[in-house]
Design brief:
- The chain is α+β, with helices and mostly antiparallel strands and 182 residues long.
- It contains five helices and four strands.
- The chain has a four-stranded antiparallel β-sheet with strand order 1-2-3-4, with no helix packed on it.
- A hairpin with a 2-residue loop joins strand 1 and strand 2.
- Helix 2 packs across helix 5 and helix 3 runs antiparallel to helix 5.
- It is elongated, with a radius of gyration of 35 Å.
Length: 182
């Protein structure tokens, strides 16, 4: 066992004693690629860009079609009543809210149940406050402006990083030429 440890120790000493050749110079394109892939500030800016996209989607969800189930039940001495239905609403850019719903009603004494169907169509428009497309789309405009700011920040950081890598690569090439000349 000690003989094996001695052989391993000698091999380790012999391996660490020799000098490794200097690494080959990294081409500029590969240096830029590695810098872009491993930069934390750039990754943070990319995440902020993704958050901006989510904010725009969230702001636009206010204008999406919304489905709601409807239901009610009541019981009295005279009988029972039940209502089941489905409604859909959508807000428009001018502030109006359009809605439609279908419902089925069961009512009457327990022995004789009557059924009736109904269709409801609604249009609600605020008259005094919260009216107009500028008010309704304010969140969308703000979210899009935030996304554009995040995109500009990402592109500026990316360009600054590429510029720094190119400058460092040129300085390294200049120093290697100066070393070879001296």
């Amino acid at each position: 066992m000690t003989a094996r440890l001695a052989i391993v120790a000698l091999a380790l000493v012999a391996w660490t004693g020799r000098a490794d050749p200097p690494p080959a110079p990294l081409p500029l394109a590969e240096a830029i690629t590695q810098a872009l892939a491993g930069n934390r500030e750039l990754a943070t800016a990319a995440m902020n860009l993704g958050l901006g996209d989510l904010a725009v989607g969230d702001a636009l969800n206010a204008f999406a079609l919304t489905w709601r189930p409807e239901g009610a039940a009541a019981a009295t001495d005279a009988g029972s009543a039940a209502r089941v239905g489905l409604s859909a609403t959508r807000r428009t850019a001018v502030g109006a809210e359009l809605g439609a719903g279908l419902a089925v009603d069961d009512y009457g004494p327990d022995a004789a149940v009557r059924r009736a169907g109904s269709l409801r169509v609604e249009l609600r428009q605020p008259l005094l406050r919260g009216r107009g497309s500028a008010v309704q789309l304010d969140d969308v405009f703000a979210a899009r402006a935030g996304r554009q700011t995040a995109r500009r920040s990402f592109e500026a950081r990316r360009a600054a990083l590429v510029l720094a890598v190119v400058q460092a690569h040129q300085e390294l090439a200049r120093l290697q030429a100066q070393l070879a000349y001296d």
